[in-house]
Amino acid sequence: MKKDTRSLLVCQGSMCISGKSRAIQEALEKKVAGTQMDGDVEVKLIGCHGFCQQGPLVIVEPEATCYTGVTVEDVDDIVQSDLRDGQVVERLLFHDPETGSPIASYHDIPFYGAQTKLLLRHCGLINPEDIDDYLGVGGYEALGSVLERPDGREVLAELKASQLRGRGGGGFPAWRKWEACLDADGDEKFVVCNADEGDPGAFMDRSILEGDPHAVLEGMSIAGFTVGARKGYIYVRAEYPLAVERLRVAIDQARRRGYLGSDILGSGFSFDVEVFLGAGAFVCGESTALTLSIEGKRGLPKAAPRPRTTEVGLFDKPTLLNNVKTFAFVPLILAQGGEWFARIGTEGSKGTATFALSGHVVNCGLIEVPMGITLRKIIYEIGGGVPEGKAFKAVQTGGPSGGCLPESFLDTPVDYDSLLQAGSMMGSGGMVVMNEDTCMVDVARYFLQFTERESCGQCVHCRLGTKQMLTILEEITRGEGKPGDVEFLVQIGEAVNAGSLCGLGQSAANPVLTTIRYFLDEYEAHIVEGRCPARSCKALISFQILPDKCIGCMLCAKACPVDAIAGERKSVHVIDQGKCIRCGMCEEACPSRYSAVERTSGSLAEGGEEA
Amino acid sequence: MSVGQGVESAVEAGGFDEAPLRDLLETYQDQRGALIPLLQGTQAAYGYLPAEAMESIARALREPLSQVFGVATFYAQFRLVPRARNVVRVCHGTACHVSGAPLVSLEIERNLGIGDGENTEDMMFTIENVACLGACGMAPVMMINERTYGKLSPDSAVKAVKEFRAKEEAGNGSGDTSAVPEVEDADGEEA
Ligand SMILES: Cc1cc2nc3c(=O)[nH]c(=O)nc-3n(C[C@H](O)[C@H](O)[C@H](O)COP(=O)(O)O)c2cc1C
Ligand code: FES
């Protein structure tokens, strides 16, 4: 950023792009070019700024004014009123939900207030498609100074002092892996960045690749120098076309400027990076499956005991494999010092954690918080609580390997060890909030359906165990649960976790076991009483029309896909319980000022007739 | 994943144009770990993996066809049958699931008369259920080609699909040409 210029930053994270932020940027550019401000104002694209819920976002720096929900039509106002006349466009500001008053600077918005942005410090500040922007904030300086040293021992010392743990979920100390790979014998070694991010409900790695790709490349180059590798791979989900595109642009620019390729910065050290597109298999996020996948094989994790990837990895060579965030932390740690990093966070978990906060929470988005913050603070202070006045029920972290924690765990500090102890796990950073209308048996079923489908099928525990658990969970949600099902689920679940070959199976039962542990009453209501307390499982609920509220508008009757609703205009409608398939379309269609459709737990159908 | 379809089911009537594949083989043949990029390139060129292409790839890499077929069926990305002209991707990520994605899916499937991974008879739409489109804040979410639709209700989702079809049938497929994906904030308010 040049001094004295004002910048209009147009967020182009995936969510804002869905809100037409590219067209907004074009319109802003055109508008600014037509004024005399051209030259004093720069319009540039940035990666995800984080406040996805309020997007598309346009930020004015250095004032840090945050315009929310911007459309192409608002461009004139922003340029004329804010840029020319110095008048903030109030209607586009975020309004405090409690006081209703507008907040101009994003620094003052509670969503940003409780965050600590280290890893995401460049996301939403620099243009990810312009290496000069990265250089302007000190980019590649860490690499430059590392290359002046005789070897990577100092890097290792800093990493050790930082106590950085791998951000891919497991939390293995980064320096140990780096040291093991450095000490491994081999003429050829590889650095691999895991950007598979298969957890359904997570988009942190993607946002970093889209918002600050050079940080990842710099971290990988430093890793290459440290362990003695000349080639790196980034394994990215093919479903992330924008991340792939920005990475390719970044790699190309880095090569042309001499930060990648042969003889980097005249040091004699050569390192290059290749992007490898994953082909859609969750299990390939596992290290050994991932390297097999790059080799062009099926991603079948290798059974233990096996040599470590740091000794026998990609193409059977010593390989350093880390998550996107782990690599992206490295330049920062080297710039600020390992001890500085270790001062942030808790005893066992240093630094910050990034989360994709979503589900039933007012502010969905990409957040970064110091380790040790409580779940409550994340959900209520940053997330703004549960919308529509509903009650909180659970928070899910760790995706299909993690668990659902109830209200009583809201004061749990967020770090590797506390979450594990609670029965969940840190995971890679998905955090989904669930309200009272969410059925926890169904959530367990949902994750089991995912793991059952994604199981590679090599080992019996995982292949058959997930299938059997899924079958039982499906029966319970269909109202066909039997006494003893819960005990059986626990038994299978513990066996699957204990006997599976890789991390997928070893954690597959966690969503089931934690929901049983914390929400046993919901399982029992389904099995014993034939009721879904959250009124969500279709087989265990009924819809009825309240005669005193129905005004006879016919909307529900028109919406019903099976013509189960009878009634004339202006007369009370009635649902034929025998025909009703409980899809909820009538409830959806009934205007909220009448709310005449009631959802009840249990069956109203006479004789329990099924459609 | 298209497990269960034999290689034969992919055999198309009519001639097989070798040219795009030949270029790909030239680029990748001598690379380590060429198989997956080759299959990805083939699918990009042909829209799916024709049986002839997999046979040529196996020959060129000196790998058994079973290995190529094994990889092609292991990964969810690969298809052994052609896809329709437009793809409706319905998100079943966690946030979308708890916000009503199952109902949205059900209604779209009912409306189009096909299930996950299937093509409509007129080859207008393929439905694909996917995990997390990364737009969780607008859950439930679907995409028709490059365009994202958020805050869906079953009703508004079906309406969007119908509107897309109408536009497509009326003219030049305008829904698909825009490079700028846009969001249809379909709140489902009915008149
Ligand atoms: C089924 C399965 C899926 C995984 N998916 C990912 C993933 O998407 N991204 C990731 O970084 N690590 C994933 N992991 C963890 C990796 O195996 C590995 O521990 C990690 O990438 C190492 O990086 P780190 O030390 O920087 O955390 C997965 C593990 C398993 C068992
Ligand atoms: S869960 Fe649907 S977009 Fe993330």
In short:
The complex is a heterodimer of chains A (611) and B (191). Chain A has 611 residues and is an alpha/beta fold.
Structure description:
The complex is a heterodimer of chains A (611) and B (191). Chain A has 5 domains: 6-110, Glutaredoxin, CATH 3.40.30; 131-341, Rossmann fold (3-Layer(aba) Sandwich); 352-435, Ubiquitin-like (UB roll), CATH 3.10.20.600; 440-529, Up-down Bundle (de novo design (two linked rop proteins)), CATH 1.20.1440.230; 538-607, Alpha-Beta Plaits, CATH 3.30.70. The termini of chain A are far apart. Chain A has 24 helices and 19 strands. Mean pLDDT of chain A is 93; it is low at 607-611. Chain A has 611 residues and is α/β, with parallel strands linked by helices. In chain A, helix 9 runs parallel beside helix 11 (241-256) and helix 17 (440-454) runs antiparallel to helix 18 (460-477). In chain B, a hairpin with a 2-residue loop joins strand 3 and strand 4 (147-150). With 191 residues, chain B is of the alpha/beta class. In chain B, helix 2 packs antiparallel against helix 3 and helix 3 (51-61) packs across helix 4 (65-74). Chain B is built from 8 helices and 5 strands; from the N terminus they run ααααβααβββααβ. Chain B has helices at 19-28, 35-46, 51-61, 65-74, 94-98, 101-112, 154-170, 174-177; strands spanning 86-91, 125-130, 142-144, 147-150, 183-185. Chain B folds into 2 domains: 7-74, no CATH class; 86-185, 3-Layer(aba) Sandwich (Glutaredoxin). Chain B is elongated. At the A-B interface, helix 1, strand 11, strand 15, helix 17 and helix 24 of A face helix 2, helix 4, helix 5 and helix 6 of B. Residues 91, 93-96, 132-136, 139, 141 of chain B line the site of FE2/S2 (inorganic) cluster.
